[in-house]
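**Protein record**
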Amino acid sequence: MKTQKRRTLKATKVISNTVLNDGVHCIKLERNFNFQAGQVIALALHTDDEPRLYSIASGQNDPYLSILFDVKPMGELTPPLSQIEAGQTVYRSDPFGKFLCQEKPATWIATGTGIAPFIALAKSGMANDITLLHGARTLDKFYFQDYFEQELGENYLRFCTTESSEKVNSGRLTNYLQTAENLPTNNKYYLCGGSEMVIDVREILIARGVPFDNIVAEIYF
């Protein structure tokens, strides 16, 4: 995610570093602080590094704090962060941010590691009266899909662009939004993922009659 203004960073121990997919990791950190589902933290490996922002991907009552990230080969943080081990130290800010997704009914839309804030929201008991649209290029990139399938049932819709499965819709989620009958225009729409997805989805929703103010986005870079 993009950087923001300099924030005070605090030493925090790593609990685990799990590889979810080639180049995608879930890191758990010790926590002794509260946060709101949908917030982010600034994270760095050293106090003098330029921190990067990551959505929290754990529930408010979980005893740890999780983040998801994909390794950017030319990035300054994610390549060494992917090598971090349990017991080592990273530096994080206090949680902040306003992507709290509190209005209902709502449609959550995510691609890639943009699923992170919705994991936090669902695990915090905030997934009632919502539909989740989840897009990915391959079937193994629907992170936490088993959890969402169990929690949301038919309100969890997956869209895959390169592979097929009987439980997954073939094609882009943008195609679904363009053609879906009875698309709810009074819903709040919360978007999280890359800028291209967010821009495309916002344009489609507006063209289909969703008010601009009903669309809230968290863009990953």
The chain has a mean pLDDT of 95.
